[in-house]
Specification:
By secondary structure, this protein is α/β, with parallel strands linked by helices. Helices cover 44% and strands 12% of the residues. It has a 6-stranded mixed sheet, with helices on both faces. It has a 4-stranded parallel sheet with strand order 2-1-4-5, with helices on one face. The termini are far apart.
């Protein structure tokens, strides 16, 4: 069990008692912090200060993400972590009643076991509230996450093409490649729709040198599945602060539904950042907290290729699309790796949509045998195996193979439409591989 204590807002006496048994202490605000939080752009964009419960949701999301980064995963059976998080909150009675719901959301995202304990928040004199500091963005009618990826870019273009006036919310980390992508995307949107959209970047990253230690960059966890909760919390705060109820968290249907590519990819080895059940549970938490905001993903029934072909290609140049990032290794390599699942899905989808191919560090699709035994080889084989299964199975067989599809109905999602989306995706992969990558096509034929 890894014990994490959030010092921000914690009464001094409790902090002194908790610190000796804590593996990590987190603190943001003040000069001695080990977590940097800068919400100035969001403060300038909103006209209403968040209520205490929404402020708690933001702090919990920050604490969960920083815990996620600080506590390393193991391998194989040790992948799942047990994390005890002691968190100061402004409304402890509410969180004691809803901690199981919150722990369920964190478990769904990370597949880790979070044990949550709350104490009464004690504000510091210099605390930076999300209080409006100036004139808020005018005429905002919705908010949307802008992560730097291709799918959130598609969501932005969709809204702007539809004549909406969104406030785009961005999490800015210390990753220079992601921040460069976010800047390039913002420039593109401002160039095509000048003066229409508003932008609010929120800086959140670990910091060395505070009064509490934080793991060195080489000792930090890189999976970071809880980042999704931060985005949802920021969307809720932005929407409430601009008096709108629509908050968009956009991702393609394949990664949204996130059917495990293989039996070895159950749990958090398959991302669930925008899974319908996660969004549904988070919206239920907002409703219980009295926050009239709904976070939705409009792309649950669309493949990535369809987003590129139908939304992006009609208005963006190839270089504008290519400025976005998808690779799991972004920031750790000079270019996209080409062998992680997001890279493979992006490459196939770009080609399926008629967009130019991109440069990758490895070209495993052209020469799969050159990467035998590597992690990239495992990724490719799992992806191809799933595609072959989807193409060959009946609907009933698909539901027996992935019975979790049936759970989607409880979140208001059409199971039959999701199955149809997966079938279109499988045909996209099959078509691209057979047209462009004959060596990989032979592997698919062997498993057909």
């Amino acid at each position: 069990m890894a014990r994490v204590v959030v010092a921000t807002g914690m009464p001094q006496g409790l902090l002194e008692r908790s610190r000796p048994v804590a593996d990590w202490c987190l603190e943001w605000g003040g000069h001695e912090c080990n977590v940097v939080v800068n919400i100035s752009e969001l403060r300038e964009a909103v006209s209403i200060e968040p209520p205490p419960l929404l402020r708690d949701i933001l702090d919990i999301a920050i604490g969960a993400l920083m815990s996620d980064i600080a506590v390393l995963r193991g391998s194989n059976e040790a992948w799942t972590r047990d994390i005890e998080l002691l968190m100061p909150v402004r409304e402890p009675a509410f969180w004691d009643e809803n901690k199981d719901r919150l722990a369920g959301i964190l478990h769904a995202l990370t597949r880790d076991n979070f044990r949550l304990t709350f104490c009464a928040y004690e504000p510091a004199a210099e605390e930076e509230l999300l209080r409006p500091s100036g004139e808020a963005a005018a005429d905002v009618d919705c908010v949307s996450a802008l992560s730097g990826g291709l799918d959130s870019l598609a969501g932005a273009v969709m809204l702007l093409r539809a004549g909406r006036k969104p406030l785009f919310v961005t999490h800015q980390s210390g990753n220079p490649q992601i921040r460069s992508a976010q800047s390039a995307i913002r420039e593109t949107l401002e160039e095509l729709w000048p003066g229409v959209a508003s932008f609010a970047g929120v800086l959140l990253q670990p910091r060395k040198g505070g009064r509490f230690a934080f793991p060195d960059s080489r000792e930090r966890e890189i999976s970071r599945r809880s980042r999704s909760l931060l985005f949802m919390a920021l969307l809720a705060a932005a929407a409430h602060g601009t008096e709108v109820e629509e908050a968009y968290f956009c991702d393609n249907g394949v990664l949204t539904v996130a059917l495990p590519l293989s039996a070895g990819r159950i749990g958090s080895l398959s991302t669930r950042s925008t899974h319908p059940l996660v969004l549904s549970d988070f919206n239920a938490l907002l409703e219980a907290a009295g926050v009239k905001v709904t976070v939705v993903n409009p792309f649950v029934y669309q493949t990535k290729a369809e987003l590129i072909r139908e939304i992006l290609r009609p208005v963006l140049r190839p270089d504008q699309m290519q400025a976005s990032v998808s690779c799991w290794m972004t920031g750790r390599r000079q270019r996209p790796c080409g062998g992680c699942i997001p890279c493979l899905l992006r490459r196939v989808s770009m080609l399926a949509a008629g967009a130019p191919d991109e440069a990758y560090e490895m070209d495993i699709l052209s020469d799969p045998m050159a990467y035998r035994g590597t992690e990239a080889d495992g990724n490719l084989m799992d992806l191809l195996t799933q595609v072959v299964r989807v193409r060959s199975m009946t609907d009933a067989e698909l539901l027996m193979q992935w019975p979790q599809l049936l759970d989607l109905a409880s979140a208001g999602v059409s199971v039959s439409d999701v199955v149809a989306m997966y079938r279109r995706y499988a045909e996209e992969v099959w078509g691209v591989v057979h047209e462009h990558f004959p060596a990989t096509a032979e592997l698919m034929a062997a498993g057909d």
